[in-house]
Every structure is written in C-alpha cells, then in structure tokens.
Amino acid sequence: MCLTMSAPYNVRWMKAVAKCSAGSSLCYVVSEYIIEGTSYLLMAVLAAGGMVSLGNVVKYAGCIRNMFGGLDKVIKRVPDLFLSVRRNLGILELAALEDDMYKGKLPVEKRSDGHYSIEFKNVSFKYPGTEQYALKDFNLKLNIGEKLAIVGLNGSGKTTMIKLLCRLYDPDEGEILLNGVDIKKFRQDQYSELFSVVFQDFQLFDFEIGENVAASRNYDRERAWKCLEAAGFGEKLKSLDTYIRKGYGDGIEISGGEAQKIAIARAIYKDAPFILLDEPTAALDPISEYEIYSGFGKIIGDKTAIYISHRLSSCKFCERIAVFHEGRLIQTGSHSELLRDTGGKYYEMWEAQAQYYRENGQEALLAI
Ligand code: ADP
Question: How many CB atoms lie within 10 A of CB 278?
C-alpha cells in the first residue's frame, strides 16, 4: 500500500484547501451582507410600523451580530478542518499498513536471574527494496552479563544488527536465537520486554521529565530520580516535576545532551535484562560520553549490554569489542588485543582518532 504523503499530493491538497477556504470566505461575505442587511431592513420596517418595540430591535440586532460573529469563526476554521483531516488520513493510512511479519506464539520464559543468551547464526539482511546487504554472514554469541561494544565506520551495519535483535526486521538468511530458540517463535510483546534500547533518534514527549523517564503517566518518582542521577542529569533534578519544553506551564527547554541523558535514564528505568545503547551520546562531548558509558557498567550490574559508539575511546572499558566493516563482523577482542593487530581495522581507526585528538589538543582522551 502506498502512502499518499508524497509532495505532489500535498501541493494538490494545499491548493484544494486554499480554493475551498477562498470559496467559503466569499460565500460568507456575500451572504453576510445580504442576510444581515435584509434582517436590519426588515426590523426597521417592523419598528416603523410599530410591530416591534425599540428594545426588541436592539435585542434582535445583538442576536444577528452574535450569529454572524459565530459563523465568522466557523468559516475561518474550515481550512484547519481540511488540514487536520489530511494529517489524520496519513496516520490512518500508516496504521492500516499490513504487518506481514511472522507472529510467534511462544511465551518468553520469565527468569529472575536474567539468564538469557542471544546468538546470531549466519545472519544476512538487506533492507526492503535494496540490493546491497546491510549485514552479511553475521555470527555472534552474546554471553550472559557481557558488556559488548560495537564499533565501525558509518554504514557498517551496527544499527542494523540492533534492529534485527529487537525484531524490527527479520533476517533474510540465518536466524537469531534466544536461549537456543529462534526469536520469531516468541510473542513479540514479551520478547520486546527483554530490551531497553536507546536509538540515536529517540523521542521525548511534551510531558513531565519523570513521565518521560518512565514512559508512563504513573511512575515511581524516587526511581525516576535515581535513574536521572545515574544518567548524569543530576544538576537539573530540582525541576524534576516540570514539563519538557516551554509553553507547558513553567516547562523548561532542554539541550540535546540533556535530552540524551533523559533517554538513557528511560533505558535504566525499564530495568530489562538487555540494555542496548546505539550512540545516544553522540551530542555529548567525548569525556561525558566516556563517563556515562563506563559508569553504566556499575549501574546495570550483571545485565547484558551492547554499546555502540564511533568514538573508540568510549568503548575501551568493554570486555569485548566487535568491529564491523561494510556489513561484516571483521574483528573481535578486548581493546588491547585489538591494538596488537597493527594490520587490523581497529588499529587503523584508533590511530586515525588518536591523530585527530592530538591535533585538537585532546590527548587526554587517549589516556582515559
Ligand atoms: P551504522 O549503524 O553502522 O552506521 P546502519 O546499520 O545504519 O550502519 O546501515 C548499514 C547499511 O544499511 C548502510 O549502507 C545504510 O545506508 C543501509 N540502511 C540503513 N537503514 C536503511 C533503510 N531503512 N533502508 C535502506 N537502507 C538502509
């Protein structure tokens, strides 16, 4: 099904709205003069003939004015009405898109020990309508409680791996296993509960900060507070009860970095067995990113975590680093192991970043 949000359609729609609005305004002005004029004339005749008292003439004139005042408001809302119909049509069409993903029925076992293991087996994937593999022959086992970093140049397949893991798409080849079972077989709602994810394009809502953290109107205030503190939002905690964005009561405007901290606090609040951070810290400076990433290990304890960052210095603390290149996993190992391979991609990327930091007087980043 094709969405009707295309630009030519929008232009056509806007022209139709403009025409309708001009037409309705013209009709209104003409009818206003004719009806209002006739009404006043009729009242004048009736008053002159003594059939209507002077008091009633004033009353009826007021009524006519009010009626046309109201009509004026209605006519002026006509374009708004058309535009909101147009907007909602798009949403309805989007909601009506068919979901052809396989829907598993198997319940996900609830484990208080959080012992869930994930394995990618020979996974390959192309985005619909594209010819190139975004991920090719990908194999990786996520050990329980492991802190894994994924690094690689832009477009190397890091986000695609996270999207496949969350089952936003299904692999074209291979399978992803949760405790040995293909994830397609599980109930999607229960499977999704296993992951706290922060994507680069996370969204905050124009609600209170605490509600944004909990993604709910009802939330545990103390817990939300702790999660914000853990995400480094401490200094603004005083205004926790306020709204994000001005215009809502005494709401506050937050910076990109603060928004990212709220999104990270949301991931902590969800308290799921897997935490996936897909560069939510890109708007922060490298030191702040390092502090959040490395401090995260302590906050999340024995949960399994995947950290994506294009800054290698932020991922040094991870037990294992997976290096992606052009849709393939090309290296894995700890920071020091990977650096020993001086012919490898990781070494090349590390040297390139080190050079950049040295040239910009940020050598301290190499030591952290
Ligand atoms: P990374 O996270 O490493 O920057 P991605 O996983 O986002 O890389 O992208 C891997 C490849 O898939 C890139 O070539 C990218 O252009 C392509 N890609 C990503 N998202 C889409 C999409 N929605 N449709 C088509 N191609 C996509």
Answer: 21
User: Quick check: CB of 281 below 6 Å from ligand 1?
Assistant: no
* pLDDT tens sequence across 174-232: 999 999 999 999 999 999 999 999 988 888 888 888 999 999 999 999 999 989 988 88
Q: Give the C-alpha separation, 13 to 84, whole Å.
A: 12
- Cβ of 156 closer than 6 Å to ligand 1, yes or no, is yes
What's residue 238's pLDDT? 66
Q: Which residues contact 292 (CB under 8 A, 6 or more apart)?
A: 231, 232, 261, 264, 281, 284
**Residue of the nearest CA to atom 12 in ligand 1?**
134
Of ligand 1's listed atoms, the one at least distance from the Cα of 160 is 6
73 CA → ligand 1 middle, Å: 49
Q: Percentage of the chain with pLDDT > 90? A: 40
In 217-249, which positions are buried (b, 16+ CB within 10 angstroms) versus exposed (e)? eebeeebbbbbbbbbbbeeeeeeeebbbeeeee
Say yes or no: CB of residue 134 within 6 Å of ligand 1. Answer: yes
pLDDT in tens, 75-122: 777 777 777 777 777 778 888 888 888 999 999 998 888 789 999 999
Would the CB of 135 count as within 6 Å of ligand 1?
Answer: no
